[in-house]
Specification:
By secondary structure, the chain is an alpha+beta fold. The chain contains ten helices and 15 strands. Helix 4 (119-130) packs across helix 7 (156-174), helix 7 (156-174) packs antiparallel against helix 10 (243-268) and helix 9 (227-235) packs antiparallel against helix 10 (243-268). It is globular.
Length: 295
């Protein structure tokens, strides 16, 4: 430690090493990102992939509720979007160039009969599609054992609609806006971990105050993590003056995510039954990825 401290004393601009990291879904933190301090930090990759990224995994040990999908603009912790075996990061750009495989992109344009397809529209579609409950349910055995394969409708209108919904979903998950559900009831805003319970569609944070939410929100998972339970656990031993606002914000994001996935399913159901996993024509969409490494 003393050797490292001495080295730091001779360096300039240490503030530049403080980076935002997506530690868990909807849980961004800060890390001192220095080569002498972080084990297997994959500095070369992240320094060149500082862009919007989909975070998923090649496999998962989860048998039900496959939720190993998230998005980030930051560094990503090893198990950010997959709690059992670890995550992989797929950036939209690498070294300021497109990270989309040109051959695959051309094939997608042929399928959709689109002359020119921009990367962001494609990226939005991918994120929207992997949040389809129909896709996850129909192909859960394949998704458990391999990277998710992305399928495309042969209808431009359906594609663009899912892309638009994916764009809304990304903005929601990145926290591009601040929200408030306004579902808190009570005057006591102190979190008491011994009094936390969920009953009758009420999430109690102490013996008298609660949030009005339904079971689907309370149990919602991303990456194998129960989002609300994870946040409450993080807050046990830390001072948080924004506790009520933060929880209301999370509740809103989960509620809107559920609503958006329902709309995505309305579009996905129009072509999902014609999909054959083994005959996927659009594998290897991204050129570069970071595989099973810690930040």
């Amino acid at each position: 430690y003393k050797k490292f401290q001495s080295k730091l004393n001779n360096e300039n601009n240490l503030k530049g090493n403080v980076k935002k990291i997506t530690y868990r879904p909807l849980d961004n933190r800060y890390i001192f990102y220095h080569k002498d301090l972080i084990e297997r930090g994959r500095f070369d990759f992240f320094e060149n992939a500082n862009s919007l990224s989909i975070i998923t995994s090649r496999q998962t040990k989860k048998n039900i509720n496959l939720t190993n999908f998230f998005v980030s603009e930051n560094l990503a912790e090893y198990k950010c979007s997959e709690s059992t075996v670890g995550s992989q990061v797929f950036p939209i750009k690498y070294k300021n160039h497109s990270n989309i495989n040109n051959t695959t992109k051309k094939r997608i344009q042929d399928i959709l009969k689109i002359d020119k397809l921009d990367d962001l529209t494609l990226f939005n579609y991918i994120y929207g599609f992997i949040y389809s409950n129909l896709y996850r349910d129909n192909f859960k055995e394949f998704i458990r054992l391999d990277y998710p394969r992305i399928f495309f409708p042969r209808n431009k209108k359906i594609f663009l609609e899912i892309s638009k919904l994916g764009k809304d979903l990304i903005a929601l998950h990145l926290g591009s806006n601040e929200y408030s559900k306004g579902c808190f009831v009570g005057n006591n805003e102190i979190l008491d971990k011994n009094q936390i319970k969920f009953e009758d569609n009420k999430l109690y944070i102490n013996s008298e105050s609660y949030f009005k939410i339904n079971k689907s929100i309370h149990t919602y998972e991303i990456g194998g993590y129960n989002i609300i339970k994870n946040y409450l656990k993080k807050s046990y031993n830390s001072k948080n003056n924004n506790l009520i606002y933060d929880i209301e914000n999370i509740i809103y994001i989960i509620d809107e995510t559920i609503n958006l996935t329902k709309k995505i399913d309305i579009q996905t159901c129009k072509f999902i039954n014609n999909i054959n996993w083994d005959l996927c024509e659009t594998k290897h969409i991204f050129v570069k990825k970071i595989v099973k490494e810690k930040s």
